[in-house]
Automatic annotation (TrEMBL):
InterPro entries: Atg7_N (IPR032197), Atg7_N_1 (IPR042522). The lineage of its organism: Eukaryota, Fungi, Fungi incertae sedis, Zoopagomycota, Zoopagomycotina. Residues 15-128 form the Ubiquitin-like modifier-activating enzyme Atg7 N-terminal domain. This is Ubiquitin-like modifier-activating enzyme Atg7 N-terminal domain-containing protein.
């Protein structure tokens, strides 16, 4: 592959990349608050959690807008929901839902703003990049 030749999939079509959005659901934040009070308490050890990456479906869907209905495809989305901590300790490499892939991660729990400010984010990124 050279600069003049774009990357191609096995069928010979040019590969296309789309940016994706990410989101923590309100239900995840509620589950995290409950786990902080009942399970983690003052424990600052890293906790396993799992997010989900959804690729766009092939079937278009219709969006109602003020100027009329338009057809679009589902956006690419990385989401952390209320099940993230439950899945975290299990095999998260497979999904039974089409176009959904689980991504294991780590929750770094701190108890004070000072502890949070002392975190070395560059070091954390380096450690997780090498996994």
């Amino acid at each position: 592959m050279t600069a003049e030749q774009p990357a191609q999939d096995p069928q010979g079509s040019p590969l296309q990349f789309e940016p994706f959005a990410s989101s923590l659901t309100p239900a995840f934040l509620q589950a995290l608050g409950q786990a902080k009070l009942t399970t983690f308490r003052l424990d600052t050890s890293a906790q396993a959690l799992t997010g989900s990456y959804r690729t766009p479906g092939l079937a278009p869907f219709h969006v109602q807008r003020a100027e009329g209905t338009s057809t679009t495809h589902q956006p690419i989305l990385f989401i952390v929901n209320e099940n993230a901590m439950e899945i975290g300790g299990k095999d998260a490499s497979t999904s039974t839902v089409p176009n959904v892939f689980h991504c294991p991660g780590t929750l770094i729990n701190t108890n004070t703003v000072e502890e949070f400010r002392q975190l070395d984010f560059a070091k954390l990124l380096d450690q997780h990049r090498q996994l």
